[in-house]
């Protein structure tokens, strides 16, 4: 068995066997397969796709490519949450402390930005001192004592996915259903939680462009989770415009804190309550989803969720003063307003391009080795359906390079379409699969 034969087989549209998939994963983790061959296979998978059997085999191979957490000695149902990726999606920063404040043990393993979409780990690392890497024993101890931990993969947990994830980000192979599902579910299963709530995005700012694709992805991941004995729920949410107003790491942390304080954008608050309600329900802290959602409202309004977030930040080495003083996360050297070129209604936003503009400003990576500029990003001042006059501010850009701001402005101007006719805002929650 060798990589050239495996690459050729998938290139020609044939189905790989579980043994061939395990051969690739085991040897890639051991650095016996170079990145150029792994990239070739990923591109073949991107174009040819993965069958359900191949996706199951890839998920299992990546799950067991390293250590698997055992949280069985912790009381209650341990719950994780994951988003398939979006622009401005900072829900974990709100949802995880809300569910934990309601008594659910939240063992959350998060990823970094992928292509034009943001990553929870990058957002948390915008907080000075925050450690997203905890060794398994420390992760376990924090869950036992605090009931909440949000971490990235350690070198010992799903190392295959960690390598492939970084490679997909810079080889144009992100938007592959089988690769997305196996990446997400291998991490979720290896993290040891009993239940998983999925936020499956669809729309121009998602990896999945329409509801049908999102439903297929949700069904696939739920099937993988149930086969592994997990409780599964999927919420399909709209990503045809950025979630909330902030796009970019420190900006999104600040906005998430606003929600935890009882404010923030209404769409972000609505989705967070939906996801937290599901987590509280499958975590056994409510008799129904409706009761779980009401509990989420209570812990958000009485300050318990904010305090849980503060405790997590402090416990993981972060400066919790950013809650009252967000400027401690730093500020960009340059800013630039993007103005409306005509009077009318915001009819459409190409959210992928908005995410690409943020990535271009430094909030995401264009190359595998790129460093994130935590202060870079975009504040959106308009939503679909809003009326604007010529010269009104549509968005404000932030970055460390004035030339990049000019280029991002061009991208953003083309991404926002203004029409003479009113436009209806999209429905945020498209479907729930319980």
TrEMBL record:
Annotated Pyrimidine nucleoside phosphorylase C-terminal domain residues: 345-419
Gene3D superfamilies assigned: Nucleoside phosphorylase/phosphoribosyltransferase catalytic domain, Pyrimidine nucleoside phosphorylase-like, C-terminal domain, Transferase, Pyrimidine Nucleoside Phosphorylase, Chain C
Keywords recorded for this protein, A-Z: Glycosyltransferase, Transferase
GO biological process: pyrimidine nucleobase metabolic process; pyrimidine nucleoside metabolic process
Catalytic activity, reaction form: uridine + phosphate = alpha-D-ribose 1-phosphate + uracil; thymidine + phosphate = 2-deoxy-alpha-D-ribose 1-phosphate + thymine; 2'-deoxyuridine + phosphate = 2-deoxy-alpha-D-ribose 1-phosphate + uracil
InterPro entries: Glycosyl_Trfase_fam3, Glycosyl_Trfase_fam3_N_dom, Glycosyl_Trfase_fam3_N_dom_sf, Nuc_phospho_transferase, PYNP-like_C_sf, PYNP_C, Pyrmidine_PPas_bac/euk, Pyrmidine_PPase_CS
GO molecular function: 1,4-alpha-oligoglucan phosphorylase activity; thymidine phosphorylase activity
E.C. number(s) listed in UniProt: 2.4.2.2
Self-association and partners: Homodimer.
Family: Belongs to the thymidine/pyrimidine-nucleoside phosphorylase family.
PANTHER family xref list: THYMIDINE PHOSPHORYLASE (PTHR10515)
Function text: Catalyzes phosphorolysis of the pyrimidine nucleosides uridine, thymidine and 2'-deoxyuridine with the formation of the corresponding pyrimidine base and ribose-1-phosphate.
Name the UniProt record assigns to this protein: Pyrimidine-nucleoside phosphorylase
Protein's organism: Mogibacterium kristiansenii
């Amino acid at each position: 068995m060798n990589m050239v034969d495996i690459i050729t087989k998938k290139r020609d549209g044939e189905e790989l066997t579980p043994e061939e998939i395990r051969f690739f994963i085991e040897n890639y983790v051991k650095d016996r397969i170079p990145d150029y061959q792994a990239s070739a296979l990923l591109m073949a998978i991107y174009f040819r796709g993965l069958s359900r059997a191949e996706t199951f085999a890839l998920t299992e191979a990546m799950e067991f490519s390293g250590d698997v957490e055992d949280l069985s000695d912790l009381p209650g149902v341990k719950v994780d949450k994951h988003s398939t990726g979006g622009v401005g999606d900072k829900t974990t920063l709100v949802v995880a402390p809300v569910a934990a404040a309601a008594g659910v043990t939240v063992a959350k393993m998060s990823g970094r930005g992928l292509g034009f979409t943001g990553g929870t780990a990058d957002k948390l690392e915008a907080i000075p001192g925050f450690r997203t890497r905890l060794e398994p024993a420390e992760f376990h101890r924090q869950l036992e004592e605090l009931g909440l931990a949000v971490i990235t993969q350690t070198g010992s947990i799903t190392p295959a996915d960690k390598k492939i994830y970084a490679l997909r980000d810079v080889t144009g192979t992100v938007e592959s259903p089988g690769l997305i599902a196996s990446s997400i579910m291998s991490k979720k299963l290896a993290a040891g939680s009993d239940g998983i709530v999925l936020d499956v995005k669809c729309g121009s700012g998602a990896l999945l462009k329409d509801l049908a694709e999102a439903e297929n992805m949700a069904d696939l991941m739920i099937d993988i989770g149930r086969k592994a004995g997990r409780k599964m729920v999927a919420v399909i949410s709209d990503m045809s415009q950025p979630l909330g107003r902030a796009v970019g790491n420190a900006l999104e942390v600040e906005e998430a804190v606003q929600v935890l304080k009882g404010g923030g954008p209404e769409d972000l608050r609505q989705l967070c309550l939906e996801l937290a309600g599901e987590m509280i329900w499958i975590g056994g802290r409510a008799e129904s989803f409706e009761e779980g959602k009401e509990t989420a409202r209570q812990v958000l309004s009485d300050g318990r969720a904010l305090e849980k977030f503060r405790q997590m930040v402090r416990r993981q080495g972060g400066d919790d003063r950013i809650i009252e003083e967000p400027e401690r996360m730093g500020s960009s050297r340059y800013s630039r307003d993007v103005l409306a070129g005509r009077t009318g209604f915001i009819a459409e936003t190409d959210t992928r391009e908005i995410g690409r503009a943020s990535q271009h400003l430094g909030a995401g990576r264009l190359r595998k080795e790129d460093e994130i500029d935590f202060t870079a990003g975009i504040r959106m001042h308009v939503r679909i359906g809003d009326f604007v006059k010529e010269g009104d501010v549509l968005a404000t850009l932030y970055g460390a390079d004035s030339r990049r701001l000019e280029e991002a402005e061009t991208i953003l101007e083309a991404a926002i379409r203004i029409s003479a006719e009113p436009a209806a805002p999209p429905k945020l929650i498209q479907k729930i699969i319980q």
